[in-house]
Please model this.
Amino acid sequence: MLNSVILVGRTVEDLKLVTTESGMKTTRMVLACQRGFKNQDTGEYETDFIPVQLWQMTAEMVCQNCRKGSTLAVKARLVTRTIEHEGLKIKTVEVVGERVIFINLKKDQA
Model:
């Protein structure tokens, strides 16, 4: 069985490293991924904004090196969860990044 996703996109904001109560480091980033085809109605490329969760060393490395607008390639996996909200069971799908390749890093604005 295979559960693998590859995303290439730009970060939409500066990232913040967070430490959980259990001591694990994590960050959540949103990648702006342009579609490879144009919208038939508008003739423009559309962009998907995909949230990606990173953990431990990967989260630290990305937070240290990336700024808003950095281009990254992310190898990830999908994780399904069932959450209960107001008595309803809702299935969610999350993208968990496992490996990140830096394509074009934005420098600090000084």
In short: The chain has one helix and six strands. The chain has a mean pLDDT of 92.
